[in-house]
Specification:
The chain contains 20 helices and eleven strands. The chain is an alpha+beta fold.
């Protein structure tokens, strides 16, 4: 999900930040600290020297996410978040030759099991006894392979050498891996990270597949908000894979195969589809030497293709409701272009004008004054930004007020923005806040590494971070009004909300 989180800063500090970070000057100063290079295999590195403390943060950005999941294999990109630090032939195995044989044996049995199930496609009923026998054999084979695993060995190596913050994340557009090391462990990071890309072992794949399935139960099936968002996406996007929740559909997750994951890896985890940022107490020349030594071993391969499917134009409002006895929720999504659109900055500003902090128009009226809502939020680009997506408005109705009350009030405010120019002072506050949010993302080494890889991947140049500051400065009152009129329209709108089934019956199923 592409969202921006902004710190609450005093007006004085915001002003100082705005003055001290005039885009041209800050870019010129910042460029002196950044070294960028690309290895012959296509892998891009960004090295940012900050010698304030003997710590280095590493961020590996894979330009592939849930939007790239093959049809029928949703959740596959997410699986790599769980496979991230399972190790290599040398790390994580008690006996690699035997473990490899055991892993291969699992797939042989799985092939037989799938073949038996697939008999139904030819009109032949699968043999139930054989299915049971193969499932038991598969279970034993998985347990045998798992017996060779040295659990969490990769984690222990990192932690015993002072590593912190080791984690991974999957979104619609990307998969990212990150942690920090003391600066005297720089070469160890290059060795560990390059090895797991050069010789990945997807051990405990089926164990982690069960974990992914359980995550879905918690985050979607047991969450009214999760169910609502998943239903919204499935309704708003008819063709484009943004209609799939990033974690995958249940039947797909339960059927994922390690061989399919390996094929996905070979296609998308190629050097030219990776960006690595290193920020902190690091010497750029040394980093380049180590990058060549370790990551230069990765074989070059063609860039994977972009998603071909384009969402057809929406020609009318879509509405969907989700039964839930919990707190009512409302979400409204409007179709919008991708993040490369010249309207991107104005849409960010519009989101802040509507719901930003305690001065947003919707917050002021719907939460503070009329108490229609307990809370609300605008997400200018959801669920991703690489392809055309949604401008999202999310509302939680207050007690005694309905989804209908909130929807009506939201539309009234949106129409007001379209027909009445916003206050220039309010616009300036929002622009200052947006600029401060971008700047504050650079405060930590880890935040800096993450931000630069994201901009490099999204725009082809990390400097876009600074030109975005200029774009915010250029947004006018007329721009805000224009994008509201252009995109926040009924024909491109999808409305999703939760309802209590008993209440719906009493209201005639409305």
């Amino acid at each position: 999900m592409r969202t921006r989180s902004f710190l609450r800063l005093s007006p004085l500090l915001l002003s100082v930040l705005a003055i001290c970070t005039a885009a041209g000057q800050s870019l010129a100063d910042f460029e002196k600290k950044v070294t960028e290079f690309t290895l012959p295999n296509g892998l891009k590195f960004l090295v940012i020297e900050r010698h304030d403390a003997p710590v280095v943060s590493f961020h590996t950005y894979v330009n592939a996410g849930a939007v790239d999941d093959p049809s029928g294999d949703t959740g596959l990109a997410h699986m790599f978040e769980h496979m991230a630090f399972k190790g290599t032939p040398q790390i994580g195995s008690k006996n690699w030759p035997l473990e490899k044989k055991a892993l291969d044996h699992i797939e042989v049995i799985y092939d037989k099991l799938d073949a038996e199930k697939n008999k139904a496609r030819g009109g032949v009923k699968p043999n139930e006894e054989r299915l049971k026998a193969l499932e038991a054999e598969l279970k034993d084979a998985i347990e045998s392979a798992d017996s060779f695993v040295e659990p969490n060995e990769y984690d222990r190596i990192v932690e015993s050498n002072g590593g912190v913050g080791m984690n991974a994340g999957t979104s619609e557009d990307s998969t990212q891996y990150f942690y920090s090391f003391p600066s005297n462990r720089l070469e160890l990071w290059f060795l560990l990270e390059s090895e797991r890309f050069l010789h990945p072992v997807l051990r405990e794949f089926y164990k982690e597949r069960d974990v992914v399935r359980e995550e879905r139960r918690m985050r979607v099936e047991s969450s009214p908000q999760g169910m609502l968002i998943e239903t919204l996406l499935a309704t708003a996007f008819e063709a484009h894979p943004y209609h799939n929740w990033a974690g995958g559909w249940p039947s797909d997750i339960e059927s994922l195969r390690r061989t399919e994951a390996e094929a996905f890896y070979k296609k998308y985890y190629v050097p030219s589809n990776l960006i690595i940022a290193i920020a902190g107490d690091v010497n750029a020349a040394e980093a380049r030497k180590l990058a060549t030594k370790y990551f230069g071993r990765l074989h070059s391969a063609p860039l994977p293709p972009l998603v071909r499917t384009e969402e057809p134009p929406q020609v009318g409002e879509k509405r969907v409701k989700v039964a839930s006895p919990a707190q009512p929720l409302l979400v409204i999504g409007y179709k919008r272009p991708d993040e490369l659109s010249p309207d991107d900055a104005a849409l960010d500003v519009l989101g802040e004008i509507l719901t930003g902090g305690r001065t947003g128009l919707m917050y002021t009226e719907m939460v503070r004054d009329k108490q229609l809502s307990l809370g609300l939020q605008a997400i200018p680009s959801f669920p991703g930004g690489k392809y055309p997506s949604l401008f999202l408005l999310f509302m939680v109705p207050a007690g005694g007020h309905t989804v209908e009350d909130n929807e009506k009030a939201a539309y009234e405010i949106v129409e007001r923005v379209k027909n009445t120019k916003i206050d220039a002072a309010a616009l300036q506050r929002v622009k200052t806040k947006l600029r401060a949010g971008v700047i504050m993302s650079l405060a930590s080494n880890s935040g800096l590494a993450e931000t630069l890889t994201s901009y490099q991947a999204s725009h082809g140049d990390w400097r876009r971070l600074f030109t975005e500051l200029e774009d915010y400065n250029k947004v006018t009152v007329e721009d805000v009004q224009r994008v509201a009129r252009k995109y926040l329209v009924e024909t491109s709108r999808t409305v999703a909300y939760t309802y209590a089934p008993a209440q719906a019956a009493a209201q005639g199923g409305k």
